[in-house]
Amino acid sequence: MPTDRERMLRAYADLTIRVGLNLQPTQRLLIIGPIANGGAALEAAPLVREIVASAYRAGARLVETLWGDEALLSARLEHAPRDSFAEVSAWLPDALVQHVSAGHAVLSIYANDPDQLKDAPQDLVGTVQQATARAVRPFRERISRNQTNWAVVAASAPSWARRVFPDANPSEQVDRLWRAIEKLCRLDVPDPIAAWEAHLADLAARTDRLNAKQYSALHYTGPGTKLTIGLPPGHLWVGGRSASSAGIRFAPNLPTEEVFTMPHKDRVDGVVRSTKPLGYGGTLIENFTLRFESGRVVEVKAEKNQSVLQRLVDMDAGAARLGEVALVSERSPVAQTGLLFYNTLFDENAASHIALGAAYKFTLQGGEAMSDEAFERAGGNRSAAHVDFMIGSAELDVDGALPSGTSEPVMRKGEWI
Ligand code: ZN
Ligand code: ZN
Questions:
Q1: In order of start, what are the domains of the chain with their CATH numbers?
Q2: Ligand lying closest to the C-alpha of residue 386
Q3: How do strand 62-65 and strand 28-32 relate by DSSP bridges?
Q4: Residues 294-334: pLDDT tens digits?
């Protein structure tokens, strides 16, 4: 008899393969973790084994896994020659591009404590991460253009679970994080796949309705927040499923609760207050307020780590402007937990949010075919940064400005109208 945990892992695996990736019988699958750490963490092994089995049951031709973890990176940082950290794998970057170009699927698994490396020498960590990022940029670009079907899921692991449940008994932390993941991924219902089909259909209906409205702006009102975010003509609301260049419909993030689009980089005015701490650069920025004028942040205030937030805003010209506006219901399972996961996959689904930095070209009609300059002229923000922060709560109201000049309610008290 399988245990509850085994049943849950199998349900998560089937959901990942059938709904997340929508893996096709002709495809190969590559399973990886954070590439700078070398691959999927060993703690994720029980989940990875279930995913591999599920992939073959779905008809996969070949499933491969790249293993590694932070301990291996820590060993490198401690013992490798000091001048060697810009060196990257000779074969991996090309192999990743080949895999994707051949139309095969990619699954990323996260099980990391985002802060585990904070005691390591930051310049060396930075060198490794930058060198890796540069080497795998062609792969990342293909993934971000949805050249193939890809997905990201998470596995509970001790260091991460300790961050999420610092007050729990150490022997219970991993289990509690698994149970949270189970709930957020709707694995605790009799038919998780049917539940996700219904939820993704809801998100699709929501984006269809918002796209038909073509609001010229959104007005946000809440405690400490009075903000207007202009939306450019042709903005596209996106959520739930994406389509690969081969036409495979897949859901890249499990869980996913948000619908999002592109703000006009020059038409944001007013004040917005964060409703959850922002984890950035290994620290938590708490209770902060941003004031915008003509799209640009002109004032930054934070009760904790204001200088870190200021540094983010000053990183480049685009980091002081918005690139994403996302709406999330306060009734979403992630919002209901009230937990902070220190992981964007979960935290960005906990509340309505906005992002400082780059906008996604796919959130503008015809955006992906535009040059960077044309995208910018259309209101698209460009930056090396893209940092989501939460502004939603059960006290947030959102109104949409219609082209006629009148407004109508979109959300009341954090819930869809
Ligand atoms: Zn988002
Ligand atoms: Zn984002």
A1: 4-184 (3.40.1830.10), 213-416 (no CATH)
A2: 2
A3: parallel
A4: 999 999 999 998 998 999 999 899 999 999 999 999 988 88
